[in-house]
Design brief:
Helix content: under 10%
CATH architecture: Roll
Number of domains: 1
Structural class: mainly beta
Number of strands: 10
Strand content: 35-45%
Number of helices: 0
Radius of gyration: 17 Å
CATH topology: SH3 type barrels
Largest sheet: 6 strands, antiparallel
Shape: elongated
Length: 105
């Protein structure tokens, strides 16, 4: 079980986009995370009429290391550390360490 999953709301804690929030779009195998509208970079693309790709300069999200983001806690409106605990019914869930609120429903 991972501390950060696809679809989680996260906040960037270091780097040029520090303080920005977004949703996790993808997690790669080398501990890198793609966050919506964060760490944008310009990419020059060549036109390919066979595939319908238009050429020019596009902006796209680039991956961040997972250590540079924290799960967003809506109760405190800040990034928060995440832990695990097993509930009485045997389910293993994530919870926020600051207030003990369960992340998974």
């Amino acid at each position: 079980m991972k501390r950060i999953r696809k679809g989680d709301q996260v906040v960037v804690v270091s780097g040029k986009d520090k303080g920005r929030q977004g949703m996790v779009l993808k997690i790669t195998t080398d501990d890198r995370v793609l966050v919506e509208a964060v760490n944008m970079a310009k990419k020059h693309t060549k036109a390919n009429p066979m595939q319908g790709i238009e050429g020019g300069i596009i902006e796209k999200e680039m991956p961040l290391h997972i250590s540079n983001i924290m799960l967003f806690n809506p109760m405190t409106n800040k990034g928060d550390r995440v832990g695990y605990k097993v509930l009485d019914d045997g389910r293993k869930v994530r919870y926020f360490k600051s207030n003990g609120e369960v992340v998974d429903v």
